[in-house]
Amino acid sequence: MRVVGVDEAGRGSFVGPLVVGGFAIDDARLDDLVSAGAKDSKLLTAEARETVYARLARLGDVDSVSLTPRIVDRAVEQGGLNRLEAHAFGRLIRRMGAEEARVDACDTNEHRFGQHVHARAGGRTRVVARHHADRDDPLVGAASIVAKVRRDRAIARLRDRLGDGLGTGYPSDTRTVAFVRAQLASCPELPNWVRASWATMIRVKEVRPAVTLDGFGP
What we know:
Blueprint: E1 2-9, E2 18-26, H1 31-36, H2 46-59, E3 61-67, H3 69-77, H4 81-96, E4 100-104, H5 110-120, E5 126-130, H6 133-136, H7 138-162, H8 174-186, H9 200-205
Parallel strand pairs: 1-4, 4-5
Antiparallel strand pairs: 1-2, 2-3
Helix pairs in contact: 2-7, 4-5
């Protein structure tokens, strides 16, 4: 049986895309994931993630869906960030093809999230949605590595274009906040690589945005 794991990276980011990553493999080879080093991407360094990613690409299939800041902003404005992610998860599952999908639930209600993903995957794939699945299931851990590596690469391309001061893209990174503040000081137009819907924009622009991620719904 072919199984696919799905997870995302960059949901809480201030800069760059939200990336949904998928990893698919025959279930007879699931034990190989542990020896390959598949685990929650947050437990690995950037260098280790790249190493494990290369191993995963030899073991099974890797794929991803990238959601731009503008797409994320529109979803947040409508209170539907979870629905946006469910749609992206389902789209990726449908594209990769599998009898079973295991996904990390971003909704507080994992069953509801699983139902949304199942519907968007076309209804033919069994979907198992769990909180902390990236930590507890090596298959979803593998997907988290795919998502994180591909997002890291997207941020690296932005840094190549904009400069190292961009930082990691997360609001906890003072370099990122300072970089965006400087960009807005020289040009008040919001760059297309920044998310307007993140609460950090209150500090950066000194004007409260219409909607923040604190207010999104399922």
